[in-house]
Amino acid sequence: MELSTEPAIDIPGELLDLYGEFRPTPLFEARRFAETIGTDCRIYVKDEGTTPSGNHKANSALWIAYHCALDGVGTIATETTGNWGVALAQAAARFDLDVLCFLDTASAAARPDRAAMMRDAGAEVVVVGEEGGGDFDPLVLSANAAIDHVRAMKDVWYIFGSVYNYFILPQTLVGQEALAQLGGDAPDVVVGSCGGGANLLGIAAPFLGRPGVEVVCAESEHCPIVSAGVFGEYSIDDRDFYPRLRTYGLERLLGSEYIGGLGSTIVAAPVAHFHRQGQLATRTFTADDAGKAARIFAESEGRTVALETGYQLAAVIAEARSRSRERILVNISSTGHSRFA
Hints:
Strand content: 15-25%
Distance between the termini: 39 Å
Largest sheet: 6 strands, mixed
Number of helices: 13
Radius of gyration: 19 Å
CATH class of the largest domain: Alpha Beta
Number of domains: 2
Structural class: alpha/beta
């Protein structure tokens, strides 16, 4: 899949049946939200919070678990800040796979429910302590621990939960469904958030490069991976276990504020490609911006969203207030309990 040049890859029948249990996910117009922020733009929300894991990563988890089972893999290990571990544990249970989820201490403290959900789905959760103090990338920390563990064991395969194409490809279901639900009429603006890039590329896939559509990446000021990342060769881990990608990277996070899945210091190569081609704009926000946007959405639409989605909604507000009578599409990548609530 990483090297495929095909424009599309078929979904196996068994996977189609599993996706059919919860897809298509809903798309709705957030009229009260638009009215509250004072815009005449129409805001459409693709709701990936309705998947079994409560987040968009269920799409990739099922795809990966299916192919691991097909290849005879019995045990898989991964790193997570929370949502990915939940999705993979649930998907692996469908195929009788054992899962080891490595979770950093900051994420375990910020989202205690996620570790419990992983264990409830049958996963073993290993909480990894911070080494050396200071600002750090939680994904690198837990990825390193997972890789060290895998190297010391037999018959355990490590699956990285973002950045690589095998993870991103299943996410394009989100954008394709949204386009169909909009009657085939593309919006004027598509908004996604960017940690590793799966959320952004998933919702934006059918629209990148399409005339008249602006794709906007919402990012945190503590990890402006697209706007401030340096192009080069990077791996998500410090062990050189995974192949390096030619993409954007940051030397470190730019603050200690917890930003969950947005705190990746490497981004998927297609994100860097589209940004370098001028097909992707960025907007960078503070935690206060994201929190305010999430609260407005919760109060107006009755939906509490997770951390990453607050940054997306901040971008929606900024775009809507600078435009008139345009159509904006955004993906709620995760729902449930939020520290913004």
